[in-house]
Amino acid sequence: MTKLPKWADMVLVPVISLLLAAAISAVVILLIGGDPVEAVKVMVDGALGSPYGWGYTLYYATSFIFTGLGVTVAYHAGQFNIGGEGQAQIGGLGVALVCLAFPWPAWWMALPAAIVGAAVFGAAWAAVPAWLAAKRGSHIVITTIMFNYIAAALIVWLLVEVMRPTGQMDPATARFGAGTTLPGFHQIPGLDLIFTRKVPANVTFFVAILACFAVWLLLWRSRLGYQIRAFGHSESAARYAGISSTKVIMSAMLISGALCGMMSINNVMGEAGRLLQNSSEGAGFIGIAVALMGRNHPLGVFLAALLFGFLYQGGAEMGLWTNIPIELRLLLQGLVILFTGALDNMVRMMVAPFFRTRASAGVR
Amino acid sequence: MTNRHETARQETATPDMPPPNAPAAIELRGISKAFGAVQANRDISIRVMPGTIHGIIGENGAGKSTLMSILYGFYKADSGEILIHGRETQIPDSQAAIRAGIGMVFQHFKLVQNFTVLENIILGAESGALLRPSKAKARTELARLAREYELDVNPDARIEDLSVGHQQRVEILKALYRQADILILDEPTGVLTPPEADHLFRILDHLRKQGKTVLLITHKLREIMEITDTVSVMRRGEMTATVQTAETTPEQLAELMVGRKVLLRVDKAPARPGRLVARIRDLRVTDEAGVERLKGIDLTLRAGEIVGIAGVAGNGQSELLEALGGFAKATGSITINDTPLDLGGQASAGRTRRAAGIAHVPEDRHRLGLILDFTAWENVALGYDDAPEYRRGPLMDNGAIIADTRGKMDRFDVRPPDPFLPARGFSGGNQQKIVLAREIERNPDLLLIGQPTRGVDIGAIEFIHKRIVELRDAGKAVLLVSVELDEIMSLSDRIAVMFDGRIMGERLPARTDERELGLLMAGVETEAAT
Hints:
The complex is a heterodimer.
Chain A: H1 6-31, H2 36-48, H3 51-76, H4 84-101, H5 107-136, H6 140-162, H7 204-221, H8 223-233, H9 235-241, H10 245-272, H11 283-293, H12 298-321, H13 328-342, H14 344-363
Helix pairs in contact in A: 1-13, 1-14, 2-3, 2-12, 3-7, 3-10, 3-11, 3-12, 4-5, 4-6, 4-10, 4-11, 5-6, 5-10, 7-8, 7-10, 7-12, 8-9, 8-10, 11-12, 11-13, 12-13
Chain B: H1 2-12, E1 26-35, E2 38-48, E3 53-58, H2 64-71, E4 79-84, E5 87-88, H3 94-99, E6 102-105, H4 117-122, H5 131-149, H6 164-177, E7 182-186, H7 194-209, E8 213-218, H8 221-227, E9 230-235, E10 238-244, H9 250-258, E11 276-286, E12 292-302, E13 305-310, H10 317-325, E14 331-336, E15 339-340, H11 349-355, E16 358-361, H12 365-369, H13 376-380, E17 391-392, E18 395-396, H14 398-411, H15 428-440, E19 446-450, H16 458-473, E20 477-481, H17 485-491, E21 494-499, E22 502-507, H18 514-521
Parallel strand pairs in B: 3-8, 3-9, 6-7, 7-8, 13-20, 13-21, 16-19, 19-20
Antiparallel strand pairs in B: 1-2, 1-4, 4-5, 9-10, 11-12, 11-14, 14-15, 17-18, 21-22
Helix pairs in contact in B: 15-16
């Protein structure tokens, strides 16, 4: 395969993939009698046209950053963590337990404790599949998918039978104390000048940015990260180097689970203020697409998460203000995943001839 | 060696030489092929006369395989034309090549392991929906070919039960069964013992006598001198010369291949073996399938001595290196500097081996020695990421590693000297230099080195051999494993020959010859000449 220049690989290919996904979506919208131009207008306007829209876009993006980073760390160890969904839900359980355990006096005291709770619970949920993969060679894709179902069932049982306050009808925990409410963008000094209306985006967004930096530091500056990447690229060479496969698989999967778990700070603590069923809302799966599109690099994950935040929020607006059903949002996301993930090489091959002629003309 | 090639030549070359103006069996005119920015073949023209053996020689990456792939329809040339027996021929795929009478024997055989010889031969050339008539027809045809060309193989044997030499014969039979009259062989002797290679050359000789045309691709000068009538030299995608073999010398060919004078022998002073560095006792390795691969190896390695392990690939040499390097589970004992090594094959054994003073240049640098997607500097840290000078607490000191890589690249003449280039971007020789620099500069007591010059160009071979001898002269023990008998003979101070997981015998290079080693490699006991 022709090697593309880095910028083409990082920017041009994803952009073309996106345009292809958009084009097909436009055709589908036309076929069901909608107006694609109007759809785009509503999406852009609803997601990016106002601080209010941005408040939602960034809120969704925050969740996707965490799950995208989680998938990224596992990917570098050669492990495909499909279990972000379950790890996020169990992470939410950790957040709920921390928030309900103690009448927190202030959010900045509750937040670090909740981060630890989310990370530990998320990591614990990844630990069993990781151990099975490291010691028994069980396929991580299969086991993590199974654990998603177990997590969902476990949470339902806990919410219905154990954690639901008596007298409450819906399966959810009690509301967290006021001291655990994370400041939204509309409450942060400085930002409140822009975000004048209440928005769900909250301080977790900054935790997500820190997490991006931490993952970069881990993967490209630390010894553990070096060992993870070495193992992910070549198990045989890692063995030659004396890198323990158990250590790499376990640590990468635990970190991955912890990151996926941490997304629940954003929604469970930052938005809902209690643990609900299906709190992760598919963010675990979108994390896979985000990691794929972000080329498994924290910066790429950040940008891809913004894009998916836009699609999520814009899609909701489209469903609200046009006669195009909200389900089309799923189609759009699916196409983006299809083109940026599965058909990545197809786009690359389409682009390659242009660079080939240019490169050979330049050399000879 | 020279005698043999001269007699072979006198018997065969003269009688059936075609008239000079007859159409060539193969004629290539101005073939060019580029992959991206790399010009793999540039304006190549060549005429191969029928009834001759034509050698194509060149370093790795010189474009030999590309050229043959074009001839066999795997690649389409960007420009140029192919003439078969004087007729312009389009070869868009291998089916067309077969129709044009071209047969190819690949370096890695394309045989179905659990099919019989007969089934493999008719595969893809069945004459109808029912197999029985095809098989009967093939059986008669095989008997004829066996008589004519010394190509005897049991038609009912399963491929997996055959030796490598016999498998190769099946490949040749496949081509002949499809009525090939032009046969291309790509590095055919890499996997053969010397007696098997001799047999192959006899087969090629018969083919030549029957008027078939043979294209022999190799990087071994000795084979070219021994069997070919004409030889073409390729360098950097170009055909630099075509000469009559009788009128050239190995030195001249080497110079044409590399573009400068090359020292084919290794200059080294006699060894002065010193203290005992490693003692291996009754070492046994059993693979995952339960087959015993090492059946009790006893070997001592001394400081200041290169011990060469000769043998046909697959006779336990790899397992010996793996057990020493720590990633195969073994029984028996290995002591290094009087300290016994753990043979349990733990995941961290690679590290403990390094700490014990063993450095390892593995046989398969693409799978073990390097991570191809990692940059050169990341590969320099492979296995040494815990070295104090490479780390700052839990973080890596990338700056220090990069600086060290620059130094290594300079001292080992790695080209291009770019620490940020991924390992896959270097040529085979430069990849090997990176591994060698990493391992040798750790100043180990024992260097394990497998196939040091496999896939390495001639120019770099000289350099690598020199470094190995230098390490020996610095009083280190070296265990050299190579399937290249020439390399073993010229580098080793002591030679141990392996066959079927055992050491058949130890010999001193000065007191043995290729014939004796060849017999040992084939498992024939010989009396040690003391």
